[in-house]
Amino acid sequence: MKYSLYQESRKGGRQSNQDRVGHAYTTEAICMVLADGMGGHARGEVAAQMLLDVVLGMFEKLAKPRLHDIAEFLLDGVYAAHDTINQYAAEHKLNDTPRTTSVVCVVQDGQAWWAHVGDSRLYHFGPDGLLSRTRDHSAIQHLIDDGLATEDEINTHPERNKLYNSVGGFILPNIELSPSVLLGEGEVLLMASDGFWSQFQPDEMLATLRVYPIRQAVNQLLEHAEFRAGDHGDNLTVVALRCGDDRPAVRNDTISDFKLDGFTTELKALGDKAGQPAMSDHDIDKAIEEIQAALLKHNLDKKPS
C-alpha cells in the first residue's frame, strides 16, 4: 500500500516550542513519534527530544527492515526513554524531573499499532467518520468517563490540565497499547499534541482531510487552530499519514516518491527546526551520552530472534 505522510510543529502563542515530532521508515515499516514536553516541569523540551531520539534510534536499529515484535518495541522504546530522562535529571541534580506526554505509532504489513502516555492523541479516521482515538490519561477524562463532565467541558474545566501519566518522573509510565488495526484505502492516522486537538471536533478535522492532500490539510488545520487559540495558545504539533493515493491537487515536484513498497512521503525538509527551541551544546552533548547509554542498556545492538 502507498502512504502519504506529513508532519509540522508550531510554537503557537508560546515563547518556545516544547513539542517534538519525527518519523523513520524502512522498506517495510514506518514509525511515527510525537512528544509534548510538560510545561509545568523543568526542561520539558529536553524530555520530549530524548523520547523522540530514543524511540527512533531503537526503530532504526531493530527494523531490519521490519520489527519482530511491535508491541514489545513500543513498550521497550517508551520505557527506555523514561530511564534516559530520569538519568539526565539525576546527573544534572534537577529538583524536578523533565516529563513529556507521547504517542508512538508503527505501520507494518498494512496494519497499525500505537501506544500513548498522557494526553497526546492518535485519531484513526475512515473515509466516512472517526473510527477510534486514544483515551487521555487526565483528570478531566476520568470525570467524563464517570459522567461528571462532558466532552464540551474538556477545554474549560478546572481539571483540564491535570495529567496522571507521563514519561519521566518517579512513577513508571502506564503505557496504553492498542491492538493491531488493519488499515484501508483512504484511512488517515493523525497524531497531535493537545494544543492542536483541543481546537477541533473530530468531524472538523475529517472535513478538511477529505478535501485536501495530506500536506495542505494539515497546514489548513494548523492555521485554524492557531487562529482559534489566539495569542496565548499552546504549541501545536501534528503528524498525519494517509493510506492509499493522496489527493491529486499536490504538485508532483513536492512529492518524494521513494518507490519503497509504494511508500510516498511528503514532509518538511529534514533539519528544518523553525519554531523549536535550541538546546545548548552542553545539553546536546549530555543528551547524546545519555541516549547512547540507554540504547546500550536495552541491548539494542542484538538482532531480533
Number of domains: 1
- Give the helix level as a range of percent: 25-40%
CATH homologous superfamily descriptor = PPM-type phosphatase domain
Mean pLDDT comes to 83
Fill in the CATH topology.
Answer: Phosphatase 2c, domain 1
Sequence stretches where pLDDT stays below 50 over 5 or more residues: 248-279
Distance N to C terminus: 27 Å
CATH class: Alpha Beta
What CATH architecture label applies? 4-Layer Sandwich
Number of strands: 13
Order of helices and strands: EEEHHEEEEHEEEHHHEEEH
Given helix and strand content, the structural type is: alpha+beta
Largest sheet: 6 strands, antiparallel
- Shape by Cα distribution: globular
Strand content: 15-25%
> Total helix count?
7
Taking all Cα atoms into account, the compactness measure Rg is: 18 Å
Which descriptors would you attach to this protein?
Phosphatase 2c, domain 1, single chain, 305 residues, five-stranded antiparallel sheet, six-stranded antiparallel sheet, 13 strands, globular, alpha+beta
Could you explain the architecture of this structure?
This protein is α+β, with helices and mostly antiparallel strands and 305 residues long. It has one domain (3-297): PPM-type phosphatase domain (Phosphatase 2c, domain 1, 4-Layer Sandwich), CATH 3.60.40.10. β12 (256-260) and β13 form a beta hairpin. Helix content is 31%, strand content 25%.
